[in-house]
């Protein structure tokens, strides 16, 4: 069955600021890694058909083995669709030997004006079965909290 995970958050910044934070390499490195991780982008091409390669490193890999190695998750992300201030659609593939992490997960970031801010809804479809739902949703929520802190600070 095709699993869907979804998390939303209202961010006190305009849709243009939130959308822009997904298309600047340095900002994505700063806010995308969830709590307990840091990220480094190795390749960057922010256009439809482009994408990036991100290495996420666990700050403490004890009890949280990575998908690519004990301490890392490496993910190839393609930009499938970029609609300014409305949505970003990414296709993510993890580098992993374990077949339970195989396949392409689609991450759709949707932005909707909400009063003086933006409601951001992240919908992940085709989530590999090896990814725990609760941990995945908590990770997305953590990234959204980081995004809020980042754009609210820089807005």
TrEMBL record:
Activator of Hsp90 ATPase homologue 1/2-like C-terminal domain residues: 12-152
One matching Pfam family: AHSA1
Gene3D superfamilies with a match to the protein in the record: 3.30.530.20
Annotated CDD domains: SRPBCC_CalC_Aha1-like_2 (cd08895)
InterPro entries: ASHA1/2-like_C (IPR013538), START-like_dom_sf (IPR023393)
UniProt family annotation: Belongs to the AHA1 family.
Name of this chain's protein: Activator of Hsp90 ATPase homologue 1/2-like C-terminal domain-containing protein
